[in-house]
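User: Please predict the structure of the protein below. I'd like the answer in structure-token form so I can feed it into my own downstream comparison script.

Assistant: Understood. Taking the following sequence of 323 residues as input:
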Amino acid sequence: MASNSGCDISARGEKMGQFLKGILAGALLAILSVGCSAYGQSVPSQSVTSGSMTSSAVTTSTSKPAPPAVDEDSLVDPASLLPDLPALPHAKASLIGGTIQKIDRVQDELTVHIFGGGKMKIFYDPRSQILHGSGLASPPDLHPGDRVYVDTILDGGVVFARTIRLATTAAAGKSQGVVVSYRPDKSELVIRDPLSPAPIKLTLDSRTEIVQNGRAASASVLVPGTLVDVEFAPNKDARDAEQVSILAVPGTDFTFSGEVTSLDLHIGLLVLTSVTDHKTYEIYLDPSTVSVDENLRPGADVTTVANFDGTRYTAKNLTINSH
């Protein structure tokens, strides 16, 4: 009896295993059928006539739309949207000479240290003409320390620059000016250079050369009012003069020939650019001595004999040269 019972249990175990295998197989077939059905629903319904898509079809489906064409004739210059500046008033101009002390590029304003003392604020805008030598310049070419001559007018209650002329600046280590004082006990020479707002102090020693008319001269000729050209070596605390050339003593006459750069008959000032050394000279006109006519204007070619009195050049005569 025991052996028969064991055989029955073994047979029933085999039947149970076959039953479970059947159930697992059915479940697997059901899962596969559901997956295939979902995949078939995810494919868009379209008829495919070829086994592979052409490259043009792929390109068309992935490319972005082209931007619309731009008509260049319809473009507008932003500058044209700004209102035009009004014309400058026909007012009489005054000539101001000095060095630029400060530039406000936001407000378009110059602070000019005027030759002889004082300061003046001068406004400018695109209507102002800026010249450097014989060519045109622009506001970025203006820098503090530059020597300028400005034709100014009153525009709306402010001083406005109609023309700004940049003068040539002196080279480093060289200066030209008028002797203010000379102290032999300290070997100190003080000169006034128009390019410098403050007097320049120089130290003379046994190595300093003093020259006048190409010959060695004594320091005793350095009297106030003497026009000198100085070459120096800048040191930390002082400037040691290497050479002092005597250009003129008070009462000397000079002949200038060149083009009139600026003219202000109201104050009797003529600015001339010499054809000899291409430097700019300020020459004052005394109406009781020199007569002028309508041919004297900026751009005229003139020759003048001017007397140096220790502070400035004053014309003794003036000739307008014909071209």
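That's the full token string. The helical segments are 2-42, 55-62.
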